[in-house]
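yo

u said u wanted the structure for the complex thing, so here. seqs first:
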Amino acid sequence: MNAPFSTHDGIAAPFLFDNVDTDQIIPSREMKSVSKTGLAGGLFAGQRYISGRIENPDFILNQPEYRDATILVSGKNFGCGSSREHAVWALKEYGFRVVIAESFGEIFYNNCVRNGILPIQLSKDVIAGLKRGVRIDLAAQTVDAKKFEIAEGDKAMLVGGLDPIAMTLEDEDVISAHFARDARARPWLY
Amino acid sequence: MAQTVFDKLWDLHRIKSLENGEDLIAIDRVFLHERTGSVALMSLLDAGRKPRNPKNVFCTMDHIVSTKSDRGENSSRTPDGGVFITATRAAAKATGINLIDVLDPNQGIVHVISPELGIAQPGLTLVCPDSHTCSQGALGALAWGIGSTDAEHAIVTGALRVKKPLQMRIGIQGLLSPGVTAKDMALHIIQTLGASGAKRCAVEYTGEAVQALSIEERLTLCNMAVEFSAFTAIIAPDDKTADYLKGRRFAPDDPNWNAALGHWQTLTSDEAALYDFDITFNAKDIVPTVTWGTSPAQAAAITGTVPARSKTSAKALDYMGLKGGEIVSDLTIQGAFIGSCTNARISDIRAAAAILKNRKVADGVTAICVPGSMSVRREAEAEGLDEIFKQAGFTWGAAGCAFCFYAGGETFPPESRVISSTNRNFEGRQGPGVRTHLASPAVVAASAVAGKISVPIAEDTT
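structre next:
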């Protein structure tokens, strides 16, 4: 279960690169245990640290004014690459609630929604105009005053903090009926 | 109404349409691996849930297993990685799913062994918490990559809530020129369309050049669909698909074979079917292609040049240690890797061996070959190909993802230039500071011998 998402006021950290892949968000070497937690320290490890855990002062999240950012802002195709949900778990554990980008890797986008992180797609121009402090209203679908689009299903999942597995289990009867019917039509699959 | 093969598969699996615009899609098979599947299984157990049908769930160990030939059942290539192996094994046993363990003779990379074992088949849905699951669309399956939470969802419920993607047809007219491979096709398409060129689209590959590909080559082509943001890729099944599957362990057998075959023959796109995007390539325009940058879309002809420095290329050029404007085939290399779900099947191993026969890897080049599955490894060894690799100076490994990505542990040194038959050239993908150039296995082999990126020339047997 995720906390329901309604509105969020936070600091937006600009990380304005295209094609930020999930290997960058959480390098594989930082996935040290079979767990959804313990990942925040590895977030952006390749760029955040000079070596070991010595911080790189140039990295956006190490700059004092963005250290407490809860909104990450990026370019095209954010979260492309590996399906590792660890990228989202690391962002969430670090404290991010929202990722704003020009576009997203599809698996990453879905992983955000499954974990209560709001992914927002905005145009380059609107992104360029964002200030450090940003207000997001999911019900109204606005970032400050600018509208954004989100699929109805994804919005409902985030607003309600819903558990999609529990929702699908409520359809067990139609799922069973489907497989029974398909087993007659395509017995080689069963 | 005229339908695409994707429409037909979607409709076959749509249990119901949900009010929010998503569909509830039946999932026939789930594949897992120890890196992201482990956490799905443990989350499921923690929640007190059970697999709906454990016999339709398969799990392999591929991502962080040791690829040394003398590995043990818990040997990992990463520091402390053994915990992923032991936890996955325990969770697989606790849930009763099919486990293809480290020392199982069928062990290998998920997208290599799923077709090999006949698990991926035309007409079924298959998901895996791995982005390269799109590979398996090469068999005419509706297969796509998901996250660990969705994997748990599919295992528990037998279904997923998915919004139907848009559709893109990529037709490749004519036939490839000699020496041009499915890998070159993939890189050429990604280079042309860009790293988000098929955003939210299911891609269907069609045309003479695609039909002419073997199933293994089709797997390579479909493998890289995620690298231009496709939801998945699919190739309608044909006689080659049926021939490939016949007799495989999980493929249909008598008395169902003929019925399955009849069904598969219906899984083609109707002539009048409409796509949201329709793109045509001419096979003759595709040449051996190598990436120069840090996105698979940053690619060039092997005989061409690295682009000039610009605002958009500077970051990638800096990482890659390039000024801009270099001739691709002048770049000296320190590493060569043949492996991964993209290019480590038997035809890939054979193509590289044909180049390596009676040749030696250049001084200063670390060369490694890791077959995609233990079955591929055995087949190669039966043909004596391992000896060709070893005599050339390649390390010959046991199956796994290996040097496709760095997870801690052994890799190439920082700032080394590596030619690789894999799928991602992201910053740090093969190790901190490692500069990856993606190419076909033949180009990797030729480059290893020359010590620089090189066009393959087969052994002179005269």
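Chain B has two domains: 1-287, 290-450. The longest helix of chain B spans residues 82-95.
cya
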